[in-house]
Amino acid sequence: MEISNTKVPFILIDLDDFLTKEELFSLKLPEAIKFLKSKTLKSSNANTSEPKEQERKIPFAIITRMANRLESEQADVLNSELNLTDPKDQLTKNEILMAYSSLRPVLAEYKDRLILLAGHGDYDNLMKDCGVSKYITVDEYNTLLPSLTPVSERPKDCPELHETRRKISKRLGIDDIEVLKSPLQVHAIFVLSNPESWIETNQLFCDLMSTPNGEIANKLPSKAPETHIPIYVANNEFNVKSLASPGPRFGAGAFMAAWKDIYSQLYKSGIDVNLYGKTDKNSLDYIGQLVKQEGGAEVSQFYYIRNAQNIVFDRNAKPSPGVVNIVIGDSNNTPIPGIEIAEHAKDTLEAVEIILKKENIM
To answer: What is the SS3 string spanning 21-58?
Structure first.
């Protein structure tokens, strides 16, 4: 099928809505990936003076709230889980969007300034992959300064403290270890996933936002500063579903709600947050830039495929302009609060076929 040389659709498939390996296969995710990888779009090359036909793959991505692996590592995991053994069928890192993926350009902007990372897991590989060395995690910050959160009863002198000082001084290029006995100035906060300790994280965030420049004030100000350091949030889902629990569990969005409420009561002021969730505008803009860089095209329409069986009501969910929701796995076509459904399909493969028919690609 020949298309405009500047417009292509983009398909997002939400991995987090598949809670079991059985669902991955019963809802035909492997077949959908193979089908997409086999299709090409033909267009003329707008970057040359003479018309030249070129083939373009249909752009798509598997999207997830996870932030514990690099995109390439997640691609390898999925290729194994989905039995995608033929190289032509296999997912690449460019077809994986982790929670932090759309934040990569922002992280790179702070490579020479200290940033604070919040979430759970090890982010050393991610920071190295982004070329960022000046970072510290919430856990590391609180280990260096246990007096910030007395309720945690962190020891003030222990092997972990000395090891953390050694590690941070090496990472940040600090020769004088005494520097790490005082609060460090932070230039931005990145919430990459749901923090493990809400108490410690909320306390540290509010401390760092007691001044406009990310330093911790000597005493609690009577009112909030006029500005605060930038805050970037990779995921804002209030609820997430878990098979091991009786009902939805709190996600990073619930942590954000608690943080905003605490800050409001503390300083009688709100906070400004840059959202980079799955279908937030910042994330869609990032995808659009990637598509343009890779092939010179623009995204004409985003399609978002979700599994109805595992979608939970999310108070933070709101329609994203330019995103068409296609829900799979629900033969009754049941409405879902907070989600404007354009189409229902029995599985992922049928959802992809519906999209390609809408785009006149099949």
So the answer is: HHHHHHCCHHHHHHHHHHCEEEEECCCCCCCCEEEEEC
The model's pLDDT over 110-132, given as tens digits with 9 standing for 90+, comes to 989 999 999 998 999 999 999 99
User: Are residues 27 and 307 in contact, defined by beta-carbon separation less than 8 angstroms?
Assistant: yes
Q: 3-class SS at 158?
A: coil
334-356 average pLDDT score: 90
Helix (H, G, I), strand (E, B) or coil at 147: helix
> What distance in Å separates the CA atoms of residue 281 and residue 219, rounded to the nearest whole number?
37
Give the CA-trace dihedral at 44, 48, 51, 53, to 10 degrees: -40
Beta carbons of 338 and 317 less than 8 angstroms apart = yes
Give the tokens for residue 245: 């629990």
* Count of C-beta atoms within a 10 Å radius of residue 305: 28
Q: Is the dihedral of CA 287, 288, 292, 298 positive or negative?
A: positive
Let me know: does 354 contact 326? Beta carbons within 8 Å: yes
Residue type, 285: D
The verdict on pTM exceeding 0.70 is: yes
Residue with tokens 């298309």: 3
Measured N-to-C along each axis, helices 29-38 and 348-358 cross at an angle, to the nearest 10 degrees, of 30
Question: For 223-257, what is each residue's pLDDT tens digit?
Answer: 889 999 999 999 889 988 888 877 888 999 999 99
CA-wise closest residue to 14 among 288, 256, 334, 329: 329
Backbone angles phi and psi of 130, in degrees to 5: -90, -5
Work out the burial of residue 266: count CB atoms within 10 Å of its CB; fewer than 13 is exposed, 13-18 middle, 19 or more buried. middle
* 173 residue type, one letter: G
Neighbouring C-alpha atoms within 13 Å toward the C-beta of 259: 30
Would the CA dihedral through 318, 323, 327, 332 be positive or negative? positive
Any idea what the Cα angle at residue 97 is, between residues 305 and 114, rounded to 5°?
145
Give the chain's radius of gyration (CA, Å). 23
Place of tokens 């579903």: 241
